[in-house]
Amino acid sequence: MSNQPIPVRVLVVDDQTIVRKGTRALLDLIDDIDVVGEACNGAHAIELAAALQPNVVLMDLVMPEIDGVAATEHIVNTYPHIHVIALTSFGTDDKLLPMVRAGALGYLLKDADTDALVQAIRQVARGEPWLPPEMARRVLAQLRTPETPSPRVDPLTDRELAILKLLAKGCTNAYISTQLNISDATVRTHISHIFDKLHCTNRVQAVLYALRCGLASLEETP
Q1: DSSP code per residue over 57-120
Q2: Most-buried pick from 48, 162, 180, 208 (CB within 10 A)?
Q3: 79-83 long-range CB contacts below 8 Å, 24 or more apart?
Q4: Residues 202-217: pLDDT tens digits?
Q5: What CA–CA distance (Å, rounded) separates 75 from 82?
Q6: pTM
Q7: Are 120 and 178 part of one and the same domain?
Q8: Domain with 213 in it: what CATH number?
Q9: Structural domain boundaries, residue 78
Q10: Quick one: 114 and 49 in the same domain?
């Protein structure tokens, strides 16, 4: 019986052929990543996500027909087990906050090195966020503008605050369980309560709340 891990199934979405092919060529060299398809726009991404059921979608933001934000929202809402990594450049900052709201779990600059790309894919495939400090700073700056008021949130318990701080450090459920001496099921329950109270849908949104409220620092994010 083979002990090899099951490869992470990845769908690459970008309207620029050279970017898609280049990303695929890089990832084809990684043993535990399997690029199962390429899409040239958001509509094609939605179609292939349904047909191929990848674990992770690398999603460009600015594309014709349907952009990355709308495609991400559709995919995440329809297939919660599929996680999206937003691929962006500093020239598309206006799309970052909408991608957070759409439910993307990872954020990566297009000029990131291969090691960062591979690590982001592996981490997001496990349901853990990937939010580099430079990306977090830009999203936080947008969250502080008057046009984006914060919704009223219910107070967190001491245990929920402790878990939120660990989430902001990128800790897994298993690590949190060990650190706080509670079961994995209890960790999941607390995280669900945190999401409900903060009006969050995923860990990235919870991490951004922790950063904004001073419960964590940018140096503690991945």
Answers
A1: EEEESS-SSS-HHHHHHHHHHH-TT-EEEEEE-GGGGGGHHHHHHHT--EEEETT--HHHHHHH
A2: 208
A3: 79/49, 79/50, 79/53, 81/55, 82/49, 82/53, 82/54, 82/55, 82/56, 82/57, 83/55, 83/56, 83/57, 83/124, 83/125, 83/127
A4: 888 888 888 888 777 7
A5: 7
A6: 0.80
A7: no
A8: 1.10.10.10
A9: 8-130
A10: yes
